[in-house]
Amino acid sequence: MRTILRFRWVIAITLIAVTAVMFIWSPDLSNLAEEEDSFQLPEDMTSQQAKEVLDEAGEGAETISLVLDMEEPLSGESEQNITSFLKDIRSADEHIEDVTSPFEREEIRDQLISEDQDVVLVPISVNGGEEEAVQAGEKIEALSTPEGMDRYVTGDAIISNDVDETTQEGLERTEGITVALIFALLLIVFRAVVTPFVPLISVAVTYLLSQSIIAFLADTFGFPLSTYTQIFLVAVLFGIGTDYCILLLSRYKEELSAGQDVSDAVVTTYKTAGKTLFYSGLAVFVGFAAIGFADFAIFQSAVGVAVGIVVLLLVLYTLIPFFMATLKEKLFWPAKKGAAHHDNKLWGAMGRISVFRPIVSIIVVAVVTLPFILTYDNDVSYNNTDEISAGAESVEGLRVIEDAFGMGDALPLEIVIDSEDDIVTKEKLAASEALADTLERSDVVEEVRGITRPTGSVLEDMYVDTQLEEVSSGITQAQDGLGDVRNGLGDVRDGLQEMNSQVQGTRGPGGSLNEAAANIENINNQVSGISQQLQQTGNTQTAVQQLAGVQQGLTEVQNGLQQGSQQLSNQQEAQANELAAGLDELTNGVQDAINGLEDIESGLEEAETYTAEASEASYIRGTGVYVPDDLLENEDFQEGVDQYAFDDETGMTMEVSLKKDPYSLEAIDAVEQVKEIVDQETAGTPLEDDTFTYSGVPGTNADLQDISSEDFTNTIIIILIGLFVILAILLRSIFQPVFILGGLLLTYFTAMGVAEMVFVNALGYPGMMWPVPFFAFVMLVALGVDYSIFLFDRYREESKLGVREGLMKAMVKMGTVIITAAIILSGTFGAMIPSGVLTLMQVGTVVVTGLMLFGLVILPLFIPAIVSLNESDSAAVEKEK
Q1: Count of CB atoms within 10 A of residue 221's CB?
Q2: Can you give the pLDDT at residue 817?
Q3: HSE of 724 in the Cβ direction (CA atoms, 13 Å)?
Q4: 185, 266, 296, 433: least CB-packed within 10 angstroms?
């Protein structure tokens, strides 16, 4: 330290010069944060795998939604205006790939126009990522909207962009509020004009240098970054940086009051408080560095604070000694040598309770904390639309969609099925339709859309029961046709018998006519038998074979009649001519019967072909679905293939509309049920070896829940282990670190209970935003451990006085420093509350509540009580030995 004091001017000038150069030449951290996709989930998450599959197939375009909320129900005029507006949209931006008109087809109309005909939804496909989608949205917003309707542009990309912009605006407000608040608090604490500028200058240098280093690391090495990085950097550095300055200046003030000269006071300060500061900074560094082990990029982005802590320690060990040695007593002007250092009366009073009446103290702490812990439900929300004001256009548009169509239809779960070969085969189509049917019959799914049901309605022609009903209807018609043939042949027979009696006296073919009539009677009996057999057995194959024989017999009869007619025509008698004409009519009747039988035979052959092919289609078993060739040529079916198949028909998607709000926890549970159904229903089917991944808002949120929960658990373990090791080394105790960390956990859950009561129970939010538990824990535990180190490191200095006396002395000496530090750090995090970003508001609330609770209740009442009980018992045991 004396070397630093000797070269203090060189060190200070060098530090400031390096900071200025780095700040000028470094990339803009705000711009880098905006460009960074910090919400990107790890590649092994199913929603990211789905995105990768679609991107590789050229199907990964972003989709935004144009919402038109009309004053009057849709009319011919407004429909024309909207159609014209959609033409303008198609040419508004080069990245707009497709605009789906709700007026193209009736089934699309039903999907995109509300039941009341006053809301029109227009999906717009954008070629590119989030940046291109936002740009396209801005171009659409610049167009003139048709009269009589309100226009909203929304979508995940646009909502995320609104969140980023709101966060950046919140950062600017937070910075200004933080600086003003710290300056005011320092004036109150030190009651000096010069003193507040020292921490502010030191922390400002730290912040500028830190963000420059982080910007270089992010730009060059891909260091994790998000819009939260700067906000947490401001809050933590200005908070604990000021706290550390107060610790150093207070100890320096105490040493000056004890009569030491400036140089010795600086050296003593850094031998005592400086060591405490180092271990405190190390503890905070470990807490934030542990975030680097998280898998989620947005969590990792807070690791930048660890870089800031290293820079802060560098500045505090170089720049603060410069100010101490240079300003000397003027540092505390107008006071002389900072006046006397006063003991803290509040902590003294609480110390007398916790140290000498520990049981009473623990009961008091339980009364304060248990009500919030016992009512804490750990409600979590994944609805990122709550992050920004409800007045934002993107959120308002989403609300209009929700009211008009239901959120399940607007934001479905997307199942992406990827195969190594053709997926549009009869077998796989049958399996996918059976899966869709099972999904739709579950109690969590409203509707399923895919190749086999492009509009959400079932294609009944795919199901065997419908097809068998048609076959049965055809057989019935064949039976009716056979009856008609019988009646017709009966008329022919009667006509022949009558004609035969008329030609008995002529030289005509009377005998042959009689023979023809007899043959027709035999054929009629055969037809009657076929009809009866078909009705009883339904054996179409036998019926077809028998009909072929009947047709041959009728042909012979027809030939005989034609010969008889010719013979009669050769005779010149008038009666013979009339009989010949009558015979021609009977011949035509026989021909009609032959034609009717051919039609019947053709229909029965089709039925026979269906039953033969269906019997050979093993995929019918368990699905009840059969895909005949003519169905593959069905227009509705081809539309489904075009819309839902991709990558040369080696993959397909299914859209599952859930009954619950896609952003809700119930929707996440529904996704898990859908996954279970898919696993069960595809086992042993042609889809078994295909890859199923899940995307859309519900699928992404399900992955988000998994990764955030896993990261939270892993990070807690790493942080607690790291802090335990540091505390054990510093305090040379195993029990004290356990008590300190236990107190911090008690503080965290109590603060979370308070915040949940405010935001969920009072303000009506569905839960605390999903990043809040993670960030709040890291901030509160990593920063709260500082105050424990402040107290217990001083306790080690005073340990020669005994357990209780040493605790009391440490508490009255450090009480003011800790309370002041807690107030200042609470102020910097409290500055997040006006940010307008729900996550920051909730994190700020938890940390402020936790720090004040820890500084005023847990640290002075709970931890000393536990330590007093433990070490007093240990001392008693040692005395007995």
Answers
A1: 7
A2: 80
A3: 14
A4: 185
d(CA 848, CA 831): 10
Residue 876 pLDDT: 45
pLDDT at 604: 61
One-letter amino acid at 677 equals I
In the block, which residue shows the tokens 């998607």? 653
Can you tell me which residue has the tokens 């035509």? 588
Report CA dihedral (140, 146, 149, 153) to the nearest 10 degrees.
Answer: -10
- How far is residue 231 from each of residues 228, 287, 327, 355, measured CA to CA in Å? 5, 17, 32, 39
Q: How many helices (H) and strands (E) does the chain have?
A: 32, 11
Percent of the chain with pLDDT over 90: 28
Q: What is the mean pLDDT of residues 441-449?
A: 91
Q: How many residues does the chain have?
A: 881
Q: What is the DSSP letter of 445?
A: E
DSSP state of 307: H
Instruction: Please state the pTM of the whole predicted model.
Output: 0.78
Each residue of 187-221: pLDDT tens digit?
Answer: 877 777 888 889 889 999 999 999 999 999 998 88
CATH class of the region 2-25+163-384+703-880: mainly alpha
Nearest to 869 by CA among 730, 739, 720: 739
State the Cα torsion 461-465-470-471 to the nearest 10°: 120
Q: What is the pLDDT of residue 329?
A: 79
Looking at the domain that runs over 465-619, which CATH code has it been given? Answer: 1.20.58
Residue tagged 């307008």 (tokens): 836
Q: Which residues contact 737 (CB under 8 A, 6 or more apart)?
A: 723, 724, 727, 728, 731
Q: What CATH architecture does domain 59-154 belong to? A: 2-Layer Sandwich (3.30)
Residue 520 has pLDDT above 70, yes or no: no
> Residue holding tokens 């040598």?
337
Q: List for the chain the helix, strand, coil content (%; round to 5).
A: 75, 5, 20
Helix, strand or coil for residue 155? coil
Q: In terms of DSSP bridges, do strands 768-769 and 380-381 run parallel, antiparallel, or are they unpaired?
A: parallel
**H or E element, residue 654:** strand 651-658
Please enumerate in sequence order all residues whose Cβ is within 8 A of that of 90, keeping only pairs 6 or more positions apart, or say none.
96, 99
Residue partners of 258: CB distance under 8 A and separation at least 6? none
Q: DSSP letters along 311-354, please? A: HHHHHHTTHHHHHHHHHGGGGGTTSSTT-PPPPPHHHHHHHHHH
Q: Phi first, then psi: give them for residue 455, nearest 5 degrees.
A: -100, 5
Each domain of the chain, given as residue ranges in start order, spans 2-25+163-384+703-880, 59-154, 420-463+628-689, 465-619
What is d(CA 447, CA 408) in angstroms, rounded to the nearest whole number? 9
The amino acid that residue 402 corresponds to is: E
